[in-house]
């Protein structure tokens, strides 16, 4: 249960993170944001990133073995990175139609998934 909750919170957290980091790149297409300066965009991104932390911190707290969770610190981080790149790929495909996913991107993604596999091998 704690492992599933951890992964669920990491997915939500990384969705907000991706929106905060890359969502503003689509602002120029929205009428309300055409005149925003960099400071305004940073403030909006920080507001979105707040929700990232609201889910990221509990994910790490619930998921960490020393707090009764299922994951070591390394496993938490590698899992978070795999979720992050997955969310980013979905975001890119859905919102940035001009970006093309090439074979080398797929290979890089597979290597990240391979990193997750290796992080979970028992010593």
Automatic annotation (TrEMBL):
UniProt entry keywords in alphabetical sequence: Membrane, Transmembrane, Transmembrane helix
Transmembrane segment boundaries: 36-55, 76-96, 102-121
InterPro entries xref list: DUF486
Pfam families: DMT_6
Entry protein name: DMT family protein
